[in-house]
Amino acid sequence: MEYSGPTVFELGENQALKQAVSIFKKVDSTIVGSGDDAAVIGLTDLRFVVTTDTLVQDHDFKLEFSSGFDLGFKAVASNVADVVAMGARPIALTVAMVVTPTTTQAWLEDFARGLQAGLDELAPTAEIVGGDLASGAQIVIAVAAHGQLLAEPLLRSGAKPGDLVAVCGTLGKAAAGLDLLLHPDKTLAASYPELVDVQLRPTPPVELALQAVSAATAMMDISDSLALDANRMAKASGVALNLHSSKLFGYQAVLELAAQSVNSRGDKQVSEIDWVLFGGEDHSFLTTFPSGAAIPKGFKVVGEVLASQAPMALLDGNPLEAKGWDSVTS
Amino acid sequence: MEYSGPTVFELGENQALKQAVSIFKKVDSTIVGSGDDAAVIGLTDLRFVVTTDTLVQDHDFKLEFSSGFDLGFKAVASNVADVVAMGARPIALTVAMVVTPTTTQAWLEDFARGLQAGLDELAPTAEIVGGDLASGAQIVIAVAAHGQLLAEPLLRSGAKPGDLVAVCGTLGKAAAGLDLLLHPDKTLAASYPELVDVQLRPTPPVELALQAVSAATAMMDISDSLALDANRMAKASGVALNLHSSKLFGYQAVLELAAQSVNSRGDKQVSEIDWVLFGGEDHSFLTTFPSGAAIPKGFKVVGEVLASQAPMALLDGNPLEAKGWDSVTS
Fold first, then answer.
1. Among B149, B179, B207, where does a domain finish?
2. What phi and psi, each to the nearest 5 degrees, are found at residue A140?
3. What are the tens digits of pLDDT across the range B231-277?
4. Cβ-based contacts of A140 with chain B (< 8 Å)
5. Which residues of A are less than 8 Å from B57 in CB distance?
6. Model confidence over A262-313: pLDDT tens digits?
7. What's the CATH number where B144 sits?
8. Residue A170 belongs to domain spanning
9. How many CA atoms lie within 13 A of B170 on its CB side?
10. pTM check: above 0.90
11. What is the C-alpha to C-alpha distance for residues A260 and A265, in angstroms, rounded to an integer?
């Protein structure tokens, strides 16, 4: 990840943006794209969805591990997942960036290519419709993502007793990838490229999640961890979400070798079940469906919703600690 | 601007946000507010406007001069002005924040009160519908603002030969306020509280600008400077914007004493006409109207639009340098 050539600072905001913005593709829903005071987006419904998510250098990523391309892709993935989790199709993103005096134009354009690649793969109906470029001490990427609802909004408060709890997407791979990247044995990450790829460029199963919109009662982007987000859904819905450890074996199994490698070569001890339960950043979808609903193929049922006086997530009937990523204290 | 008590870091993201978010008022257009994966906003028209703008500590503001309240207010003002300049009424804002390990919860709540005060004064139809709180080396405030169009979008490319060029809001006061704050004589700023206030908490004349939407041919938020933004409008419209220095005398006159004070007590020499032409951050509105249009009271005609082979801004017929704020190189 070596970048050379002039810095963004040397080019100035307008020239730097002009070259980066030329990388973005246009979509039909954009009425006025970037270049004016604001963008104008067209809808086919009198509602839109909006969310924002931030990536901060040395807190959410390290330039040592992530290329500009990776970060653009990840910024799209994390924001698009939140839009989709509301039952909406992504249509427009804005990107506010802070770059440092040493950030090169080559890095910025690689980042822009990563943004577009993320849209191409995860949200081809969406466009980068605007942005802002500022200077600071570390790179910050603040995206706001917008979507159009396919039906009524899918809230995290919609889970009902008797519903099934299902997941689509990976669990624990992003956390495993992070432990591999951070491992003192720098050769380890290369042995598990798939896990590292999920950490660097997560690919939430957007189309699959959107297929579930009409049947689902609740949906969330699992960004901070299965345990933490299941607790959030349980509290918002006033229910218990009981997960079955036997249903999580499959997610653990594919992480077993990586956990052994991490443990055999360093001081930090990890376990595949901790990655699955408490690891963040996979951006998979936690969903509840009424019993008997047609659950789209690709979702895996991992538990059920129970009535409860003390709303919380359970694992095999026992309280599951709401442990995961906290973007301030982590 | 002393803040005490626990840091945001000590409270953690969820608790810190919960207390800050309780400060925000709700508006009718918000269908789902903060607390889910994304917010859902209702419209009365199948289009929405979106813009994003960022404030970075030590580049766009200094904690020595700006309170948390000031920064919340300014973040609203700068973003709302961009929405309004498209001919849209603000309805929803998201706020992505980076705070530092030393940022106190008291500061964060003062910032939240400033955001709400900015909405109360400038955009009472808008709500803070979502946000994100992250940790980093310096405070970063990235707002995305959304609006509902009142008519067709007012683009910067709409100015036509024969139109009148008009301005509403202050010119040069924010730049004067900044030079006063930065002056080595620390007593100076207190002598010109109105100028300092415009720098710290700009108040774009939102309602006045919205009154002009049906008559205007083009509108821009003057964020970087009259000269720079007039050049941008000229280029986007393929015309010349000829400003008359005699029409700017009134803006200069109210800055004359402050310029004399700055010049008499320090090394930096300023001039009131430079503040008016090349100073940014007033967030006033540069507007063009067809000749004979009913221009709302409160707008001041400062020039006219001319056909031109070389689109640019002019002052009394001579090229006006596109000089002003560049958020990367400044």
1. B149
2. -130, 135
3. 999 999 999 999 999 999 999 999 999 999 999 987 889 999 999 99
4. 98, 134, 136, 140, 142
5. 136
6. 999 878 899 999 999 999 999 999 999 999 999 999 999 999 999 999 999 9
7. 3.30.1330.10
8. 164-319
9. 25
10. yes
11. 9
Q: To the nearest whole number, what is the mean pLDDT of chain B?
A: 96
For residues A219 and A143, membership in a common domain is answered with no
Q: Are residues A170 and A302 in the same domain?
A: yes
Domain count, chain B: 2
Burial class (CB in 10 A: 0-12, 13-18, 19+), A245: middle
CA distance B10 to A59: 16
Task: Say what the ipTM of the complex is.
Answer: 0.95
Q: Are residues A20 and A143 in the same domain?
A: yes
Interface probe for A, chosen from B156, B228, B328, B330 (most Cβ of A below 10 Å), is: B328
Same domain, B169 and B295: yes
pLDDT at B260: 97
Range B198-222 average pLDDT: 98
Give A222's DSSP letter.
E
Do the Cβ atoms of B140 and A142 come within 8 Å? yes
Per residue in A218-275, pLDDT tens? 999 999 999 999 999 999 999 999 999 999 999 999 999 999 999 998 788 999 999 9
Contact state of A51 with B94 under an 8 Å Cβ cutoff: yes
Contact B130 A51 (CB under 8 A): yes
Domain assignment of residue A3, yes or no: no
Picking from B123, B149, B175, the residue at the C-terminal end of a domain is: B149
> Pick from B40, B86, B156: which is nearest to A47 by CB?
B40
- The answer to whether residues B177 and B123 belong to one domain is no
Domain identity same for A280 and A307: yes
> Is the Cβ pair A99, B328 closer than 8 Å?
yes
Smallest CA–CA separation between A121 and chain B, in Å? Answer: 21
Supply the DSSP string of B56-69, one letter for each residue: EBTTTB-TTT--HH
Separation in Å, CA of A220 to nearest CA in chain B: 7
| Interface probe, candidates A52, A57, A152, chain B, greatest B C-beta count within 10 A | A52
DSSP label of A188: S
